[in-house]
Amino acid sequence: MKTLFHQKLEKYKRRYFEVFGDLEAQVEFLKLSNLVLLFILLMSFFGSFLLAKRPPVVIRVTEVGAAEPIRDFHLNNAPTEPEILYFSKSFVRKYTEYNAYTLSRDVTDAFNQMTLRLQKITNRDLVDSGLLVRIRETGLHAQIEFKEEKIERETQEFILVSLLGVRTIQSYKNPNYRESALFKAELVLKKLSRSIDVPAGLLVDDYREMILNKLGDQK
Q1: Which residue, of 53, 125, 201, 202, has the greatest Cβ tally within 10 A?
Q2: Residue 103 contacts residue 132 (beta carbons within 8 Å)
């Protein structure tokens, strides 16, 4: 026979389990919710990674601005002649149209247009020559005017482009300094799949330049 004490004790036990039982249920629910949210977060990161690796959508237009239908994606996604020439001139400007104030940004942009092989070679040459230091110390800035541009040869993997132009170099620190030269540049472009990092589908794999004629005197 249960005494009054035992009855009160059971009553307190029920209250104890009712209170802490609800807390345990809430804790288990929060654990499950956290696992679900963690799974959703991981899936979001994975989806973002896949989207970042997808090639950008390139829509070509006609002369009147109408979108061109693309039936063979791999064939039509190859760089066109205007794209190739624009990419080549853009690289030469970033790499050799010196400006002491924007030098770091321009060189970085030019390196982003190179293959890893050419990046290593160019980095070594720039360090050994001390060219960047001289440009900064003398405040040089240049301007290029292209005279001729031509695709010399093209294979399945590479494109050879030649550019003829006049580069005029001046100095912010010496207004009387002016030097102009006619030069010829040859670029070997490597074809790649278009991506976020390589939107043009091209990278410079080799660059050579020759001074054909000096047009101005140094002062």
Answers
A1: 202
A2: yes
Range of the domain at 82: 78-214
- Which residue matches tokens 């001046």? 170
Looking up tokens 């009160």 gives 8
Q: Based on the domain organization, do 117 and 195 belong to the same domain?
A: yes
Torsion angle, CA of 106/112/114/120, rounded to 10 degrees? 90
**Count of the separate structural domains present in the chain:** 2
One-letter amino acid for residue 95 of the chain: Y
198 shares a domain with 144: yes
The predicted structure's pLDDT at residue 15: 55
Whole-number Å distance between alpha carbons of 82 and 87: 8
Dihedral angle, C-alpha 199, 100, 208, 153, nearest 10 °: 30
Output Rg (C-alpha) for the chain, integer angstroms.
33
Q: In what order do the strands lie in the sheet with 178-191?
A: 140-154, 158-171, 178-191, 202-214
Does 143 lie in the same domain as 85? yes
Percentage of the residues of the chain whose pLDDT score is greater than 90: 50
9-57 residue pLDDT tens = 555 555 555 555 566 666 666 777 777 788 888 888 777 777 666 655 5
Confidence at residue 187, expressed as pLDDT on a 0 to 100 scale? 97
- Give the separation between CA 186 and CA 92, rounded to whole angstroms: 10
Half-sphere exposure for 183 (CA within 13 Å, toward CB): 22
